[in-house]
Design goal:
By secondary structure, the protein is an alpha/beta fold. Helix content is 47%, strand content 11%. It binds iron/sulfur cluster (SF4).
Amino acid sequence: MRVSARSIPTSMSKTSNSELEPAWKAWHSEESPITLGVSSCLLGQAVRYDGGHARDPFVDATLGKWVKWLPICPEVESGMSTPRPAIHLVQEDSSQTLVAKSTGEDFTERMQSYAQSKTEQLGALDGYVLKKGSPSCGLERIRVYRANGHVRSRDARGMFAKQLTDRWPLLPVEEDGRLNDPKLRENFIEQIFCRNRWRVLTQRGLTRGRLVEFHTAHKLILRAHDELGYQRLGKIVGELGTISDEQSFAQYEGEFHRALKILASRKAHTNVLQHAMGYLKELLETREKQQLLGSIEDYRLGLIPLVVPVTLLRHTISRHEIEYLQNQIYFSPHPKELMLRNHV
Ligand code: SF4
């Protein structure tokens, strides 16, 4: 697998060891950094049809500090030159083609055969960031033209992106534009960190005991995303040993990734926070309890960001050493430097 020269900086491991919660230290590994595929032009590589790039500062500079990139330009890697004529998707009957606007040259076969063989190699990624609007890389709302040049629809997926998402439907995938939405950004980053923890778990050797431990640490984060999915996962774990471990692990993996794809709502976060409060109620003075309940209520009403009650709870949990909650990934699912959970 070809990866960018840039890798996780050594400062990550220092930061991780000194500042992150115990849950972090236990589940990530410096040997298996979070690895994401990315449309090369988003990192500033001059691979676009006009010889330019489309560097995205959040992707390149902010997220880039925490992940290892696998930059891919499907157009260049399938044999197109830079610069090159702009291409677009064309459809008259049931099949789409990828055609140069100015010359009519048809790149469909080259792109499809490249995409098929390339995406086969990408199952070990933790996620993928695609370039919006591209007939090759775009995730959604790509224009499709008729042969006469008129727009036929605006709801297609780029040809490479379609092959990628069809081949790996559970892979966390986002595009640069959607990552500007704080909720989508948060959800994507939670997914890539969770997927990396799963990958590390399987690399270390998955056993029934380790699966129980993993599931226990992810209970609250799963409940924030998908209560029903969380219950299905609990059933898989509860029934370990009744079918082959291989089947149980495969079922768990599928349900785990499916659950995390669901956007965590304010209502679900509120439920999780109130549930966590249940472990603390007997231990807190009235005033402290009121402060915590007040911040959860303010969050529920949309007056303060999620980071406020989560931080208050984390400090309280740490002071009272509630082991079950201290080990919950939910309270520190990603580096605080990414400034997530800060929106209302
Ligand atoms: S959008 Fe995709 S195909 Fe187009 S230049 Fe960027 S990486 Fe290459």
